[in-house]
Amino acid sequence: MSTDDQTRKIAVSLRRRAMDYLARREHSVSELRRKLTEKFPETEKQLLESVLSTLQDDGLLSDQRFAESYVRARFNKGYGPQYIFSHLKNAGVPDDISYQELSIDENEWVTNLKKAVSKRFGNPLPQPGTLAWAKLERFAQARGFRGKHLQKLRYQRSEGEV
Fold first, then answer.
1. If DSSP codes are grouped into helix, strand and coil, which group holds residue 53?
2. pTM of this prediction?
């Protein structure tokens, strides 16, 4: 078998494996690169980059689509912007794409926080300044919500909206 045939065969295997990964869920370019490198450790970097580039050109691989999907899924699970941003960064998504996808209205983040803490702590929410409120704050910070979200939630609590 000639070198060109071997290279073509490896490229087909790379693309097939990449398509298998992408059929399960969206991946960032960096994430897919890492997975393919682990699966095919002796593959030339140039060939791998060529396959990734072709997948992007074909519209099958997109950091934008991955970020959109990831943000939506984590938002719906009650996570805040800092948590989501950190995970997008770890997945290799460029910051500009992350910021764009995380540009959700602050009131929606507060509503999301309210749902998450209500699910965890029940209703009505604890009084600010109590031990239970401190636990709520730690929970919110671990979920990636910012101090301003907690302040708005505290304000809503004091106004009787929660």
1. helix
2. 0.89
